[in-house]
Design brief:
Shape: globular
Number of strands: 0
InterPro entries: TPR-like_helical_dom_sf
Radius of gyration: 17 Å
Largest sheet: none
Number of domains: 2
Distance between the termini: 41 Å
Protein name: Sel1 repeat protein
Low-confidence stretches: none
Helix content: 55-70%
Mean pLDDT: 83
Organism: Amantichitinum ursilacus
Length: 143
């Protein structure tokens, strides 16, 4: 998705507002509007705000949804946190508990984080079974 020049100006204005102590939740609301239009950086900022309780009440579910939106929009900083959220169940894959599916989806995001050079992802690769990682990468399972 291509962002308009106005979206970029709105983002910069929200960042400036975020630096002001008395702006309240207004920059977060502006980031939400930009995230709804597909801006990954804005979704990242909203996710961090909800996860850390900055200018809004802490809400892990809302934060994880915005973090996933950021990752899907291509925001590289969100790849690793999304993988952890899938591994811990904060972002459920299916309605029922399905550990293998959770690991598979987490492996996909771990791989994307690794491909972008995120050093945090290397430490967590040991918790994912190799066969899941290979399936994630598209290799034919060994027999």
């Amino acid at each position: 998705m291509t962002l308009s020049e106005q979206d970029k100006l709105d983002y910069n204005a929200a960042v400036r507002m975020l630096l002001l102590a008395d702006s309240g939740a207004q920059p977060i609301e502006q980031f939400k509007q930009l995230a709804a239009r597909g801006m990954g950086k804005a979704a990242w900022n909203v996710a961090v705000a909800y996860l850390r309780g900055q200018r809004v009440a802490v809400d892990a579910a809302m934060g994880s949804r915005y973090m996933l939106a950021a990752a899907l929009a291509g925001e590289e900083r969100a790849f690793y946190p999304v993988s952890r959220m899938y591994m811990t169940g904060l972002l459920p894959v299916a309605a029922g508990p399905n550990a293998q599916l959770q690991r598979f989806v987490a492996a996909r995001w771990f791989w994307r984080a690794l491909a972008q050079g995120d050093p945090r992802a290397w430490a967590d690769c040991s918790c994912i079974h190799a066969s899941v990682m290979f399936r994630c990468l598209g290799f034919v399972p060994y027999r």
